[in-house]
Amino acid sequence: MIEVNQRSYRLPRVATVVVCVDGCEPDYIALAVAAGAMPWMKKTLHSGTALVADCVIPSFTNPNNLSIVTGASPAVHGICGNYLYDAESDSEVMMNDPKWLRAPTVLAALADAGKSIAVVTAKDKLRSLLGHRLRGICFSSEKADLATQAENGISDVLAMVQMPVPEVYSAELSEFVFVAGVKLMQTRRPDLMYLSTTDYIQHKHAPGTGQANAFYAMMDRNLAALDALGCVIALTADHGMNAKTRLDARPDVIYLQDLFDEWFGAGRTRVILPITDPYVVHHGALGSFATAYLPPDVDPLAVCARVGALREVESALTRAQAAERFELPPDRIGDVVVVSRRSTVIGTCESRHDLSALDAPLRSHGGVSEQRVPLILNRRIEGLDPQKRWRNFDAFDLALNHAQ
Amino acid sequence: MIEVNQRSYRLPRVATVVVCVDGCEPDYIALAVAAGAMPWMKKTLHSGTALVADCVIPSFTNPNNLSIVTGASPAVHGICGNYLYDAESDSEVMMNDPKWLRAPTVLAALADAGKSIAVVTAKDKLRSLLGHRLRGICFSSEKADLATQAENGISDVLAMVQMPVPEVYSAELSEFVFVAGVKLMQTRRPDLMYLSTTDYIQHKHAPGTGQANAFYAMMDRNLAALDALGCVIALTADHGMNAKTRLDARPDVIYLQDLFDEWFGAGRTRVILPITDPYVVHHGALGSFATAYLPPDVDPLAVCARVGALREVESALTRAQAAERFELPPDRIGDVVVVSRRSTVIGTCESRHDLSALDAPLRSHGGVSEQRVPLILNRRIEGLDPQKRWRNFDAFDLALNHAQ
User: Fold this and answer.
1) What's the mean per-residue pLDDT of chain A?
2) Which of A112, A177, B105, B162 could bridge across to B69 with cysteines, CB 3.0–4.6 Å?
3) For residue B248, which residues of chain A lie inside 8 Å, CB to CB?
């Protein structure tokens, strides 16, 4: 047994794979299953364990991947977005650096306990966080050609996977993760493997569409291969995904910085969009969660009341309220937190968002409306309480403590 | 000017068409527009007025059609479902009979003021309510062949429409409504026309799918034809539509009568599903709204607390709370009202729901999650407050008082 962040985990006795499918709104699976595109999944949902869980808020990639691999909320691990305002340096920075991570990962702890670990992510932005203090294999599809034994615990990845390095905006970036996972399991059989994809397809294509079903069929073939290799598989997601458009298919955006500039004066407040990362082509940095820093003479409660009354807004909370409700680190969020509704997103200033590259009606995430995610295991676990609030960061607990 | 249910309406100066598109989740329009399937709509959303409004709860067909044509909530017009428990006769009955209607319609009032009126509905179940005390034309696609001058104000409908009577479960049942509307406008030019479709397509096909886009393309052609005839058009919907399935694509149902029988004893409570009507093939009588009658020794507040804690339930309210929040007639709902979440539906007893005819993953409505509907006019109305809570039953007000 090991203990990580006050949860205990048994060491894997069987090769175990935890998969985080980026942007996997549960309907993607349901409609792909209904269309016959996921025969392995259909069988597994009946013979294994099928739960719907809540992800952490903000329903973004980094906070949730870190919750899954630490088994804890952002209040514990500290990663509450892809992007934050660092009060200490008075600058806005990416949260990719492991210096932001406040908790150890289950991955690193298993490696320390002598188990062999492999981590494959689609985008490289997650690699350094997931691989923090990890002895083992850890590389991304995006930079698979640059992987070295010294840095990534593996080299010659392209020769192993037999695929070229995919485009960063492509379904193949995720396919590469799965194919690499199968090859690793066939050749090196790690004790534990963590696979994390990217949501390029989910940002562009609704559940049940041809492109979505083709992506999930690809997933299904690779999951079936891992299953055939005898692996225990736990599959969950970092967040869901919803359409965020007006009737004319343009994004339905509330530009919060523009509004605050109008209300309180230009330059007096700072709206932060934690969805921001270098890869914004498919969502234009528009998500359903924002946080804002206010000057001392502006009352956060009054701002919450005023913002909360807007048509586009689902809830507006003070720092303390948001930290409690969403289990966030209070020192890394602003004075207020704003969550928009299922069909709306939050921007900063209209002039700062380049939406010219959006070639499909906006689909995005970040809010409570994208909190539902699948939590599926290919082993039946008896006696689970269906009324319990399952979390995506219960994946390691279920996989290691209950499914083997 | 006429006054109906404490709202004033100008008499139409231009031929006016109010369209209720059954089950028109806003995304159907956005994705059809994005796919190029609705060229008229795309133009109209820019040159006219495009709002998103709230329908009335329960988000079912009859309450909302009656709200639209009375300009009032169910608390005023009395139609709070398709189906109710009539305490007086101690029986469960359909609410199709005009005896349940407590308010006059704008349609009948305009006819009384000397205006010519035409009403075309897809299913016949709505016809007698919409046509109550109406002098004018009023018929359904479903029974178009049986329309007579005496009963419906028109005969030989099939010859006019040049289509056979459609199947009751078909897209053509709605197409017939539109084609009849265009023919009526071409040949008789009524001062006001109300067209109400059926949600067969929306129950089976998600927004953006080929079948949905084809349906909306058909709508678009007919709306363009009415526009070309010089009509003022107001388009809204009775309710939205969401997927209601588990990961394996089976309906995600909470069987509330089974649960109450277990908690309180068999036969002691009565769960009513107001979605119930004779046409349940496409939804199995499963929607996201239920009401229940309790024996005197069971405390409604305690039931609400217990039911409200269930994973599938969004809110559970006492009669008084529900009547206030949803503007419902308190004498026609039970002791508690239960609304389920976006992806779940409520049934009575598992044994009473025949789901064998469901040939696609369940999509349904009834809850707050299906409250957003389009409210579109083909005339630009200046000065509308985008932050106002617009209702689908503002359609006649906007069409008659602001768009002409």
Assistant:
1) 96
2) B105
3) 30, 33, 42, 45-46, 50
- Chain A CB contacts of B361 under 8 Å are 30-31, 34
| All CATH 3.30.1360.110 domain ranges in chain B, comma separated | 253-361
**pLDDT(A19) > 70:** yes
The tokens for B200 are: 């067969």
**CATH 3.30.1360.110 is right for the domain spanning A253-363:** yes
Give the residue among B366, B361, B259, B253 at the shortest CA–CA distance from B312.
B253
Only one residue has tokens 């999930």, namely: A216
Domain B253-361 coded CATH 3.30.1360.110: yes
Q: Which of A34, A46, A248 sits opposite B50 (nearest CB)?
A: A248
Condensed to tens digits (0 to 9), the pLDDT of residues A267-308 reads 999 999 999 877 776 778 999 999 999 999 999 999 999 999
**Which part of chain B is CATH 3.40.720.10?**
2-241+366-402
Rounded to an integer, the average pLDDT of B74-79 is 98
Cα separation of B8 and B71, whole Å?
Answer: 10
To which residue do tokens 């392209």 refer? A158
Full DSSP string of A236-291: E-S---EE-B-TTSSB-EEEHHHHHHHHH-TTS-EEE-TT--S--TTTTT-BSEEE
SS3 B43: helix
Q: What is the pLDDT of residue B354?
A: 86
Instruction: Mark yes or no for CB contact B360/A34 under 8 Å.
Output: yes
Distance from CA of A41 to the nearest CA of B (A): 8
Task: Using alpha carbons, list the distances in angstroms from residue A329 to A92, A100, A271.
Answer: 17, 11, 17
Which pLDDT tens digit goes with each residue over B124-140?
989 999 999 999 999 99
Q: What is the pairing mode between strands A289-293 and B372-377?
A: unpaired
For B42, which of A26, A248, A342 is closest by C-beta distance?
A248
Say yes or no for a CB contact (<8 Å) between A27 and B243: yes
Domain with CATH 3.30.1360.110 in chain A: 253-363
CATH of domain B2-241+366-402: 3.40.720.10
**Chain A hits for B29, Cβ within 8 Å:** 247
Interface contact B207-A243, CB threshold 8 A: yes
Tell me the residues of B at the A interface, defined by beta carbons under 8 Å apart: 26-27, 29-31, 33-34, 42, 45-46, 50, 52, 206-209, 243, 245-249, 309-311, 342-343, 360-361, 372, 374, 376, 386-387, 389
* Nearest-angstrom CA–CA distance, A101 and A160: 31
Global pTM value: 0.95
- Give the DSSP per-residue string, A156-193: -HHHHHTSPPPPSSSSHHHHHHHHHHHHHHHHT--SEE
Of A76-90, A99-113, B34-48, which gets the smallest average pLDDT?
Answer: A76-90
Contact B31 A206 (CB under 8 A): yes
Where is average pLDDT lowest: A20-24, A395-399, B122-126, B218-222? B122-126
